[in-house]
Amino acid sequence: MSPGPAALAPAAAHGRRNVVVMSLAMFALVAGEQLWTRFMPKYLAVLGAPALAIGLWGSAKDFLDASLQYPGGALSDRFGPQASLMWFTAIAGLDYATYVVAPAWPWLFLGLVLAAAWGSLASPAMFALIAESLPHGQRARGFMVQSVLRRVPILFAPTLGGLLVERLGFAGGLRVGFLVSVGLAVLTLFFQRGFYRPPATRPAHQALGLVGLWRLAPVPLKRLLVADVLARAAESAADVFVVLYALDHLHASPLRYGFWIGLQTLVSIVSYFPGAWLADRLGRKPPVIFTFLMFALFPLLVGLASNAAALTVAFVAAGLRELGEPARKSLIVDSSPEGARGATVGAYYLVRSAMIMPAGVVGGLLWARNPHAPFWAAAAVGMVGVVYFVTRFHEPPAPMEPAGRVG
């Protein structure tokens, strides 16, 4: 016999509580990191790192982001997302402390590895926690909350970090930022310990491995991955050259470019709300189609832009790329097997990251030939992804929810 609404109500309340706790923890840690993370390449230079080491820093971040997603998901499935997120918070705190006491620039790379505990290892655990805590019809809203709180610190924290640097210099300003991050990590860990509530039951852990996950993955998830790879390849081929196009070819000022980044972030935050509403009421596919379309439209608009007003429109399109993100993430967890959700999410992002790695190099080769070429190529690849998703992806039916769970 299925439990009735009265029995399921406390579990539903605990589920929503866990999502709120996770989202606030993420907000605190991201806010601390945004005080200093965008200044790290310059900090490396201040500490005497050569140009090769600074370039390696960017490559190491990309490698860690790709390679640690799957282990993070596997750990989440094994120990539960709540416990895993607390461990990842503690490791991230060690990272910030390493930055504070680092005697020379090579030590920062040790901190970078520890920092990936939150940025990469924790991501699949967040997906799994939302899937575990919320019914199908509320997951897009859960991902909307997560995405908004991840973006909001970008609106203010880098500016505060810049003020610290101006007042205290690079070394002094960033060390204050690191200390703030240490303090926030400690507070976040105690907050998580006090307020997370484990579920009454958890699906049995399934250790399937990458090959087993691929075989078990449903066709809709595989087709979503193909379309997502095409969209992100378009992003990787073009986005890194947007700042060069804006400053060198349109002669925009760095201040104006900063305004465009802020505008893009603001549009992203606002777009999450209608995106989540549409996903939970009209289905996941329409918002995801819109998002993939914006991935193709943004580089096209950049390549066509001949003045600042036109580029402003392009950055609005860039912000609208996030409208379908709650729906896309919901599709991933909806298609993931219980007991292996974290590993499935990690495997998804591992494959996606590995597949798009060459895109930036291809974009650089095209840029060397013609500054417009990477944008035309990115738009074409993005449109292939849109057509593929529209014609080949069929949204699976929503699962039946136990009576009283929706609450």
SSE inventory with pairings:
Blueprint: H1 5-34, H2 40-46, H3 51-67, H4 69-79, H5 81-101, H6 106-133, H7 139-151, H8 157-195, H9 209-216, H10 219-238, H11 242-249, H12 254-282, H13 285-304, H14 308-320, H15 325-334, H16 341-369, H17 373-392
Helix pairs in contact: 1-6, 1-7, 1-8, 2-3, 3-6, 3-16, 4-5, 4-6, 4-16, 5-6, 5-8, 6-16, 7-12, 7-15, 10-13, 10-16, 10-17, 12-14, 13-14, 13-17, 16-17
Keywords:
mainly alpha; 17 helices; 407 residues; globular; disordered N terminus; disordered C terminus; 79% helix
Mind explaining what this structure looks like?
The protein is mainly α. The protein is about 80% helix and about 0% strand. It has 17 helices and no strands. Helix 1 packs antiparallel against helix 8, helix 4 packs antiparallel against helix 16 and helix 5 packs antiparallel against helix 6. It is globular and about 55 Å long.
N-to-C span? 19 Å
Globular, elongated, flat, extended or rod-shaped: what is the shape?
A: globular
Please outline the major beta sheet: none
Poorly predicted runs: 1-8, 402-407
Strand segment count:
0
Tally of individual helices: 17
